[in-house]
């Protein structure tokens, strides 16, 4: 292969003409099959004629490597030859920085596949150290072809994969031997060199060398990746020296306020940032190695946080360093020796570090006006923040300072010896006991933080005594005092600062779990005032309103409802304007209000729905290709209202007046939703492939609205008025082509499918089974019907999305068994059965090797299809796999057996399986000798299914009897549950790791049940007319016709015999006697159905003879005439019984069952 040809094609890929680029790319793909192709790319990336060509070659090589190595073929890494790896290493050590940045990605892909996962490439580590040692800056040889920066960049790529644990199936993963080798061969000598470079860098007075700074930064990155999860043993002795060097680098950092740092200073700042990350990792992950130098770490971090006084003048990187310094102090304070190291500096931290970072500054005001969303994200987040010493998202100094303030406030001083001993004595502690011991000591929040904050008066006319947060007579009520004296008065000030109000809103939201009932009205009154605050002439109040909405949502989340719901609803509804971006947040708040208010807001839902539909209708225009976010949020809110209204049904319909009111409300809601969906779907939106179609947006929420429309139907006239047939046709078309699946996004679609079928069964829908004919001159081919669109959606769900398998399978039974198909529509039903069986069997074949819970719904789908069209389904199964019908029949028989977990659990599942096995056995026995063996296996499973059906029916009767008793005991159970919450055991670190290791193993083995499917496994499935079939008569008919093949001379497993005995004896007047009699006979343990019948007759005969002898003995000694007459009659009855049993025995012996 000529390198010049590849180079020319790479040049063509940079051509502005798309046709030339497409042609060149196709030619390169064709050349990629030649063995020398990657070598050519590597040569061009090193010595190409221009910079663009070299970068293009490196980029194409990266993508080529990813395609060939990161594939599902685990053996693909062997395709990388030693020759190519050697040439790649040489190229990496020589190329220019832009090419190196791309080419090192190729190296990373290869080392992950070969070195990290397979532990191949043994010469890599020694060769890399040799290259580093002999590179231009290390060996002081300016003419050396190896570049030090390149070699260290390769080292960084080599250790980067080890920053994470590699095997989640191991609870405590040891240090990988590859990382130990890197540490021994490269990092140990590199740290000695690092010490020399640091000393040299610190000795230069104000002069920073660019190359040296790059080396320091890359070495710090390598060490960070190395120790982030693991600690190689060879590095432990070098940690003290390494940390001292890092502390020296931190001390050399310079924060020039308002001056952009030069490139050399920028590198030193980046090294400082990486240093603080290393310190946080050592403290949180490797504390036993970091305790000795923790005091020096604290002192260096304290020097950095001192610079927070000028935080508004710092650039982003400098602020990030201060943020990390706060985090390091928080990490230290959460350790055992942390209190002793940090507590002497509490006053300094509060006065000179934390408070300056919290104070409003010029940068905040500018951001408030220019980018309010960014200001809210940084300073007024609506989610509750956890107090923790290490959070990745604490990237601002203010957030980190607040985090440290929280850690200080929650700290309770140095642990006592007693509590320490208790803590070390047991790895498990009860949460209640732990909290009780902690509460015995006052926190620093009470002793230090609150008194410190009390020094700052609020901007009002309140006097100092009223504004104090600390009241000696009310120590337990700190939160109440804080809110009443420091927050609520702000809302009463006539011209209060919006910056203060926004912060007050956020604080109230953070304190939601601690607020008392007595201040409920005042809190909500203040927040509603903030929620409705208009903009000033000079200042926007958008953050005030958003933070108020977030605070109210937090209050509702913490079960702190308003005293009255109507004022809150009026303010929210009144401010919603779809043209305003703020409405997106208000829609979310309204959803929270409706969910929390439940019955309290249900009466207002019809009015709110009508109002919101009117606002949303104005924002849906035919020219829209996608809906704006505010419209999507509006649909989501309407869906929540719809569900809340439907949940309101059971209790209210008991009263006639409320029932009439509810029906009127449901009708109004249905009309409003119908009008909205009509505008969204029936008005043309935008052309797709030459056809005008509606926008496929918000299908899940739209399905909820459509279901609500269907539920409001009370007659056939309403279907026409609401244009339900037209809406359902569009909806079916949309879901048929829908591929934007998410975790729970399809729930409403499946619920809507069930409601559509139910509505059609009650009233009949146009175009439900057979679509309408198009008007001429279009071809006379019916358009897709509603059920055909639904069928396409369900088939796709079964074949592609495991999380939807159970719900989709449930819909299959509904679609096949519930609707009544006319003769003309039979082809539609057959096409549905064909599509469903194909999708289910295809998916089953993918998971066939590992029996799991998903087997059951897939096999039952094929069962329903088979009962409808046995010949068609059998042909489909045989077409998809050789012996496909036998595979499915064996699997369905296995599912019926007791060895399959979770097994058949509902009455309908067992009945469907039993009917299927009968049909399968009939089909197999029609194949003469070819299907006898499988038919007998199916028959044994059929017997087990009948026994299991009897057990399930008995369990259902018992559950019905126990239900009332459970309801009576429910209140007592609730009380005991509340009492037991405090006794919940806290999970230890070892238990946590073990649990996740087991979960990872289960995930890899494919035994994990898909999220959201567990609740669907116990539901009854719809059988339609099959539900009326008497399965026992069908089975008896099967036995009568084929008993000579299925039963004669073939044993039934002992556990099946025992279950049959139990089931048969339950029907007798003395079940225990029957059970003991049959099981006591040793022949019963290994018997077939014929012999079991003979044993039953023999046992009954023996007992009858014994009873006749006893009656005769009593009669001989009896003198009373009446008693003797009765005993004589009894003796005659036993004689008749013995005669019949004797006849039955003869018939059983010769297997003349018809004579019984």
Explain this structure to me?
The protein is an all-alpha fold and 1156 residues long. Helix content is 67%, strand content 1%. Strands 1-2 form a two-stranded antiparallel sheet. Helix 40 (786-800) runs parallel beside helix 42. The longest helix has 37 residues, at 932-968. The radius of gyration is 39 Å and the shape is globular. InterPro entries: ARM-like (IPR011989), ARM-type_fold (IPR016024), Importin-beta_N (IPR001494), Invertase/methylesterase_inhib (IPR035513), Pectinesterase_inhib_dom (IPR006501), PMEI_plant (IPR034086). It is found in: Nucleus. Residues 412-439, 950-991 are annotated as: Disordered. One of its GO terms (cellular component) is cytosol.
From the structure above, extract its key features:
single chain, 1156 residues, mainly alpha, two-stranded antiparallel ribbon, 54 helices, 2 strands, globular, nucleus, Importin-beta_N
